[in-house]
Design goal:
This protein has about 325 residues and is an alpha/beta fold. The protein folds into 2 domains: about 210 residues, DHBP synthase (Alpha-Beta Complex), CATH 3.90.870; about 90 residues, no CATH class. Helices cover about 30% and strands about 20% of the residues. The strands form 2 sheets. Strands 1, 2, 3, 4, 5, 6, 7, 8, 9, 10, 11 and 12 form a 12-stranded mixed sheet that branches. The chain has a 4-stranded parallel sheet with strand order 13-16-14-15, sandwiched between helices. Helix 1 packs across helix 4.
Length: about 325
């Protein structure tokens, strides 16, 4: 059966319908300000198990729990540090996920068996109302097949999951287009496990302490999604190249390829290929567009300015099959 597409901008009952499906133990995709999430009731363990099955997601890759009110954190977490409330006052609702200690009532599978839980309050009004109508927090990873580019439109969700989930709430295009910043509050100093729109400097300014990036091994048990495994990858091979000269050279050396170029700056003239704009908000859409066009490669101009954008650089590195640092 095809996945139901619910449009709250046209149908005032759409979110109530989606919430009823969630309460019945179904899976529903919904928009957030970052990417579309694939939701299930957090206390419904069979539904949580279906998230992992539908996505093909490894069991050691934790989910994020979404709440509709800050005080709802008490339903999913215990021994909540004061830093949580300080950050929530400044950044909730918004693209920040905070790792705290898991409440015993939250199924262990939500957190990959760890004693922590990742919590956030999305900014998208459809997401907030859907969670509120459901009556409990909603666990939701990105609404795509595991490893694929995250969806930033309802049509992207359907490309991966049509017929596998009950419904998708079509809220249009996501505002930010990259997943939330994940900050581990039980570490000293607090560690960013996954970079996002909210930066280390912003977090440090609010907390009054240094905030650092996690530098651990992706083979160890980690309480954050987006750390292990190859992520965000299209079918086309993604190559990160540091200069226009190297992009041009690659094109000349691979006449059999059908590549597309993503760059945040104008190419020198003349240039043998059309160039599409590289930006965080549309990165995943461009990845999916290249696949729909049958492109064999995506050549990314990986300049210092791109590398200085922590979230964008992180997603590009995780998607890449070749980086400038690896050499030819």
């Amino acid at each position: 059966m095809a996945t139901l597409v619910l449009k709250p901008d046209r149908d005032p009952t759409a979110l109530a319908h989606a919430a009823a499906l969630l309460r019945a133990g179904e899976l529903v995709a919904f928009p957030t300000e970052t990417v579309y999430g694939l939701g299930a009731r957090v206390f419904c363990e069979p539904a949580i198990a279906r998230i992992f099955a539908v996505k093909g997601r490894p069991a050691d890759n934790p989910l994020i729990v979404h709440i509709a009110a800050v005080e709802d954190v008490h339903r999913v977490a215990v021994e909540i540090p004061s830093s949580f409330w300080v950050l929530a006052e400044r950044f909730f609702p918004g693209p920040l996920t905070l790792i705290v200690r898991r409440h015993p009532s939250v199924p262990a599978c939500v957190s990959a068996g760890l004693e922590t839980v990742a919590v956030r309050m999305p900014r998208n009004p459809y997401a907030l109302e859907l969670i509120r109508l459901t009556g409990e927090p909603v666990a939701a990873p990105s609404a795509n097949r595991s490893g694929r580019p995250s969806p930033t439109r309802a049509e992207h969700v359907l490309q991966d999951l049509d017929g596998l989930i009950a419904a998708v709430v079509d809220g249009g295009e996501c505002e930010i287009g990259l997943e939330s910043t994940v900050l581990h509050l039980l570490m000293e100093p607090p560690l960013i496990m996954r970079p996002g729109a909210i930066t280390a400097d912003e977090l440090s300014a609010v907390l009054g302490v240094p905030v650092e990036y996690w530098r651990g091994s992706p083979t160890e048990a980690v309480p954050s999604p987006g750390v292990k495994y190859r992520h965000y990858a299209p079918n086309a091979s993604v190559l990160l190249l540091p200069s226009w000269e190297e992009v041009r050279q690659w094109v000349q050396e691979h006449p059999e390829a059908d590549p597309v170029v993503l760059a945040s700056e104008t190419p020198p003239e003349p240039f043998p290929l059309p160039v599409r704009l590289l930006q965080a908000a549309t990165l995943y859409a461009e990845f999916r567009r290249a696949d729909s066009e049958g492109k064999t490669h995506i050549l990314v101009l990986y300049t210092p300015s791109v590398q200085a954008h922590p979230a964008l650089a992180d997603r590009l590195r995780k998607a890449a099959t070749h980086t400038a640092e690896e050499g030819p």
